[in-house]
C-alpha cells in the first residue's frame, strides 16, 4: 500500500525535482516508510511506501535490468506468490519477494496483457523508455484511486488529487462535476471537482505516448453472463471463493487485523480469518456512548463467537468535528457522514496494526442495502427499459432536474443548462441489457457508487492514518460469481443478500446473519434542527457561502425551514450542500 505520483511532458518542459518531491510529500501519510523517485528528461515516477510485503527489498521504483522500464504501484497483488512461481527458470524470474517486482517481470514477458493475471487492488504506473510509453493502470472496480491532469503538453498523475495540485496546476471549479455531486451525493467518475483532472476509470488503463492519451478497457463486468445453478452449488461455490479470497489477503509481513461491526459482512470475514489463523484475530470497532446509535454489542457478540482479540472504543456520536479533516483527505466533497466514524475506527486500529480486512463491497454485489428492497418492492415488471432507467435514476438522486431549477441561481444554471447528470448512468444501462433488473441496479452501483464514494471511504480514511484496507468481497472472482447468479437469489421475499446469508449462516450464526442492517451513521438530520443549527447557518447562509454565486439562498432557506418544521426530511439535501461548502473552504478559498 502506497501512494504514487508523477508526470510526462511532451515538450521536454520538466517539473523541477523539488516539485516532484513535494507531490510525494503531501501524501506522505499514504507511505511514511520511504520515498522513491525516478526522473528523466521528460518523465518522473514517484512512490510513497507503506511497507507491507518484503519489508527490506520492496522499495520502489522497480527497474528492469537494463533500466529501460520503471514501475511504481499503490496497492497489493494478492496472488504475487503464484505469479512469481510461474516465472521461475525463465529470463524473468523474480529476485525479491515484492509484488511490485512481479508486475515488472510480467510486463517484461507479456507486455500490457499481463494485467488480467493480477488478483489485487492496484494503481500502477509503468514507463517504458524503449517505446517512450507511459501506462497508468487501475484495478477492476477502483479499490485504489488514480487521477490525472491533462492539458496541452502535460499529463500529471497521482493517487490523490492533492499530489497533482502540488505540481502547481490551476484550481478551477468543474461545474458539471458539482452538478453530479448534487445529483448522486458524490462526484461521478471520471469527473472530479477540478477542471482538467479526471479519474483513470476502474478496469481501464491509459496508454500515453507522445501527445496521445488512449483509454483501454481491460476488464468488463457487463460481459459476465448468468449461469443456471441450484442453490447448493451456489452456496458451495460462494463459500469456496470467499474463503480463498480471505486467505490470500492474509499475506503480510506486518501485523494485521480486521474491522468488526457485528454486521454480516465483517462477521463473515472475521469468521473466515479465524478458521485460517492459529492465533486470535485482532478486531477493532467503535461504539457510541448514546445507546440509541450504539451497535458495539453486536461486534462483541461476533468477537466472542470467534474468540478474537477485540479492541472497542466508545466515542461521542457527533463526530462532525472531523468533517473538514475527512474532506481534506478525500480531495472532494461527499455527502456520506459515515466517513467520520470510519476514520475513527481506522485511527484506533492504526495503534496496533498496519493492515486490516474489511467487508466492503458485499452490499453492492449482493443487494444488501434497504434502498434495493424498498425500490424493488414495487412492481417494476411492466416498465419499459427507458421507464425503468428513469425511475431507478430518480431513486438514487438527491436533487432532481426540476429541483435544480430552483436550487441554482440563474447565472450558474445558465452555465450548465446543456448538461444532464444522467449521461453517466445511461451507457451503463445500455451495456447491462443482458442482466435482470436487480443485477442492473447492482451493476450501476458497482461501476459508479463503489469507485465514486464507497471505496473512497476505506482507502482515504485508512490511508489518512497509514493503514491498509483489504476487501475480500472485491476479489474479482467473487465479483464475477456475484454477477453470474440471478438477482432473485440476492433479493428474495423482502430478504436482502438471500443466498449470501444462507451460505454463511452456519459460520456466523443466524443471529448475526439475519439481524437488521444498521448503517454506520448517526441522526445528523435531527442535530441540524437543534445543536448543529449554528453550523448549518454558517455553512449555508453566511456571506462567505453566498459569494460563491451558485445557489438561490431563498430556496435553501425553504428546504431548511421545511426540514426543521418536520414538513419534509431534507437531511440528505442539507448534508451535501454543507459538505460542498466545507470543500470550497478547504480547497478553493485562499
What does this structure look like?
With 590 residues, the chain is α+β, with helices and mostly antiparallel strands. The protein is built from 26 helices and 17 strands. α8 (296-305) links the parallel β14 (282-288) and β15 (309-315). It is 41% helix and 16% strand. It is globular, with a radius of gyration of 24 Å. The strands form three sheets. A six-stranded antiparallel sheet has the order 2-3-1-9-8-10. It has a six-stranded antiparallel sheet with strand order 4-5-6-7-11-12, covered by helices on one side. α6 packs across α20.
Task: Give a short overview.
This protein is α+β, with helices and mostly antiparallel strands.
Structural class, from secondary structure content? alpha+beta
Shape: globular
What's the quaternary structure here?
single chain
Question: With helices defined by DSSP (H or I, 4 residues minimum), what is the helix count?
Answer: 26
Radius of gyration, CA atoms, in whole angstroms: 24 Å
Say how many strands there are: 17
Q: Which stretches of 5+ consecutive residues score pLDDT under 50?
A: none
Strand order, largest beta sheet: 2-3-1-9-8-10
> What distance separates the N and C termini?
32 Å
Major sheet size, sense and barrel closure? 6 strands, antiparallel
Amino acid at each position: 500500500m502506497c501512494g504514487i505520483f508523477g508526470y510526462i511532458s511532451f515538450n521536454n518542459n520538466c517539473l523541477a525535482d523539488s516539485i516532484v518531491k513535494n507531490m510525494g510529500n503531501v501524501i506522505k501519510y499514504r507511505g511514511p516508510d520511504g520515498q522513491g523517485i525516478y526522473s528523466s528528461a521528460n518523465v518522473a515516477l514517484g512512490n510513497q511506501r507503506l511497507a507491507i510485503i518484503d519489508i527490506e527489498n520492496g522499495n520502489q521504483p522497480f527497474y528492469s535490468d537494463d533500466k529501460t522500464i520503471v514501475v511504481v504501484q499503490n496497492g497489493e497483488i494478492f496472488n504475487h506468490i503464484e505469479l512469481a512461481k510461474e516465472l521461475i527458470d525463465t529470463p524473468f524470474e523474480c529476485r525479491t519477494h515484492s509484488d511490485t517486482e512481479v508486475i515488472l517481470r510480467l510486463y517484461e514477458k507479456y507486455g500490457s496483457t499481463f494485467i488480467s493475471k493480477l488478483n489485487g487492488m492496484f494503481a500502477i504506473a509503468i514507463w517504458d523508455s524503449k517505446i517512450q510509453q507511459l501506462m497508468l493502470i487501475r484495478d477492476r472496480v477502483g479499490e485504489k484511486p488514480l487521477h490525472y491532469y491533462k492539458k496541452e503538453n502535460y499529463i500529471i498523475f497521482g493517487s490523490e488529487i492533492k499530489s497533482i495540485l502540488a505540481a502547481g496546476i490551476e484550481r478551477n471549479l468543474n461545474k458539471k462535476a458539482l452538478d453530479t455531486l448534487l445529483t448522486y451525493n458524490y462526484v461521478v467518475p471520471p469527473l472530479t471537482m477540478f477542471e482538467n483532472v479526471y479519474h483513470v476509470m476502474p478496469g481501464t488503463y491509459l496508454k500515453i505516448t507522445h501527445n496521445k492519451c488512449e483509454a483501454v478497457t481491460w476488464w468488463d463486468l457487463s460481459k459476465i453472463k448468468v449461469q443456471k445453478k441450484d442453490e447448493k452449488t451456489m452456496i458451495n461455490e460462494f463459500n469456496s471463493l470467499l474463503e480463498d479470497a480471505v486467505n490470500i489477503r492474509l499475506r503480510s509481513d506486518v501485523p494485521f487485523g480486521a474491522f468488526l461491526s457485528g454486521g454480516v459482512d465483517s462477521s463473515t470475514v472475521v469468521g473466515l480469518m479465524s478458521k485460517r489463523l492459529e492465533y486470535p484475530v485482532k478486531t477493532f470497532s467503535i461504539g457510541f456512548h448514546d445507546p440509541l446509535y450504539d451497535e458495539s454489542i453486536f461486534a462483541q457478540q461476533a468477537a466472542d463467537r470467534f474468540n478474537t482479540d477485540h479492541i472497542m472504543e466508545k466515542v461521542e456520536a457527533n463526530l462532525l468535528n472531523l468533517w473538514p479533516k475527512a474532506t481534506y483527505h478525500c480531495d472532494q466533497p461527499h455527502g456520506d457522514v459515515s466517513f467520520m466514524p470510519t476514520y475513527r475506527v481506522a485511527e484506533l486500529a492504526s495503534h496496533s496494526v498496519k493492515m486490516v480486512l474489511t467487508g466492503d463491497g458485499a452490499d453492492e454485489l449482493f443487494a444488501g442495502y434497504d434502498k434495493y428492497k424498498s425500490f424493488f418492492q414495487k412492481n417494476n415488471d411492466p416498465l419499459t427499459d427507458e421507464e425503468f432507467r428513469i425511475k431507478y435514476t430518480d431513486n438514487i438522486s438527491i436533487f432532481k432536474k426540476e429541483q435544480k431549477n430552483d436550487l441554482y441561481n440563474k447565472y450558474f444554471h445558465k452555465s450548465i443548462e446543456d448538461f444532464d447528470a444522467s449521461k453517466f448512468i445511461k451507457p451503463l444501462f445500455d451495456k447491462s441489457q443482458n442482466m435482470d433488473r436487480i443485477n442492473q441496479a447492482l451493476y450501476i452501483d458497482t461501476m459508479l457508487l463503489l469507485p465514486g464514494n464507497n471505496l473512497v471511504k476505506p482507502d482515504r480514511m485508512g490511508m489518512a492514518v497509514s493503514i491498509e484496507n483489504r476487501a475480500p468481497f472485491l476479489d474479482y472472482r467473487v465479483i464475477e460469481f456475484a454477477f453470474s447468479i440471478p438477482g432473485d437469489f440476492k433479493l428474495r421475499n423482502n430478504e436482502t443478500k438471500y443466498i449470501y446469508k444462507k451460505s454463511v449462516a452456519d459460520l456466523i450464526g443466524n443471529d448475526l446473519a439475519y439481524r437488521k442492517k444498521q448503517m454506520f451513521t448517526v441522526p445528523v438530520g435531527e442535530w441540524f434542527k437543534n445543536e448543529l443549527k449554528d453550523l448549518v447557518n454558517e455553512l449555508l447562509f453566511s456571506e462567505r457561502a453566498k459569494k460563491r454565486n451558485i445557489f438561490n439562498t431563498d430556496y435553501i432557506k425553504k428546504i431548511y425551514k421545511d426540514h426543521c418544521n418536520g414538513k419534509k426530511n431534507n437531511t440528505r439535501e442539507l448534508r451535501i450542500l454543507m459538505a460542498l461548502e466545507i470543500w470550497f473552504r478547504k480547497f478553493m478559498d485562499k
